[in-house]
Amino acid sequence: MSRTVYYRIAFLFLFSFSILSAELLRPTAGGEEKEILKIAGKRRLYTIVKEAAVVYQVHGPVRIELIARYPSPKKSKKSQVFSYRVTIDDEDPISINHKYKIQKSIRSVQHPSHYYTYSGNYFINVDDGDHTLTFSADDKQDYPVLLRVIKKDFETAKKGKRELQPMVFQSNRTVQTGEKEISYYELNYGRPLQVEVKGPKTLRILSRLMFAPQMGAEESYRLRVKSGNKVLGTYFMSTEQSSEAVILELPDKVPGKWRSCDVSVPDGKHIISVELIEKDRGVLTRFQEYK
């Protein structure tokens, strides 16, 4: 059965890593149809994903970025709704849903009269070892999904780390691990946190899920990162309860093991918003910027 949020893939969590290099992956099975889009003066190769499976092989640890667009034969001001699924190894399928407007500047080499949406970007951190990623689209959609699968390796983070404080926040929580106490900012559904970053920088978001008594030993959550109205990415996190850490102000809740994601912030001053997608849980967050 397909599920959107609660899948059990063992995600790699990052501490002292940042993106080193990026590689466009090619399917190992299926995905013979391609579309070349001209974007900002460059040609970008996309794989056409329909209901038939398109399979990729990856070796972790890596971060996978999924860049998806949807075609439209007519120019429209309405947002285009589209979706596709990804299955990692033998786990349950993950449904990825997008809703984006047409990006007027994009043209296709094969279909010059067609239009294409802004890109929807999703990120998945894949654990060590060999893994299979299988993609398919809903056959009820009018058109196929155009997809790029990018593999990104990691390197030790550069110097110049600086802790950031949200512009406005409701609650400040302290997580104690042994004799060490670390300050976090509570993030809840409908109450995004915002930080100001002057790029070009890398913004690292460290997070811990707060486990309530009724929750299982392992749970998942999603963070959506935006700059203004633009979605920079949606990050999936899977975590388990920590046996070593406690939340001093909330003794009835158990912090999860921490997870992190890196966001590239372009040149200029930006207000970055971080949203929790799930309504039934809370997350503790920290923010760091790197040069």
Descriptive labels:
mainly beta, Jelly Rolls, 19-stranded mixed β-sheet, 0% helix, globular, 291 residues
List the helices and strands and how they pair.
Elements: E1 17-24, E2 34-39, E3 42-49, E4 54-69, E5 71-72, E6 80-88, E7 94-100, E8 102-103, E9 107-108, E10 115-117, E11 120-137, E12 145-156, E13 162-164, E14 172-177, E15 180-188, E16 193-211, E17 218-227, E18 230-240, E19 245-247, E20 254-255, E21 259-276, E22 282-290
Parallel strand pairs: 11-18
Antiparallel strand pairs: 1-12, 2-3, 2-9, 3-12, 4-11, 4-12, 5-10, 6-7, 6-11, 8-10, 13-22, 14-15, 14-19, 15-22, 16-20, 16-21, 16-22, 17-18, 17-21
Characterization of the model:
- With 291 residues, this protein is mainly β.
- It folds into two domains: 17-156, Galactose-binding domain-like (Jelly Rolls); 162-290, Jelly Rolls (Sandwich).
- 0% of the residues lie in helices and 63% in strands.
- It is built from no helices and 22 strands.
- The protein has a 19-stranded mixed β-sheet that branches.
- Strand 14 (172-177) and strand 15 (180-188) form a beta hairpin.
- The termini are far apart.
Q: How would you spell out the order of helices and strands?
A: EEEEEEEEEEEEEEEEEEEEEE
By CATH, the topology of the largest domain is: Jelly Rolls
Flag low-confidence runs.
1-20
Number of domains: 2
Q: Roughly how many Å is the radius of gyration?
A: 20 Å
CATH top-level class of the largest domain:
Mainly Beta
Level-2 CATH architecture of the largest domain: Sandwich
CATH superfamily of the largest domain: Galactose-binding domain-like
General form:
globular
* End-to-end C-alpha gap: 43 Å
- Tally of DSSP helical segments: 0
Q: Helix amount, in percent?
A: under 10%
Broad structural category: mainly beta
Overall strand count: 22
Strand count, sense and barrel status of the largest sheet are: 19 strands, mixed
Average pLDDT number:
89
Strand content: over 45%
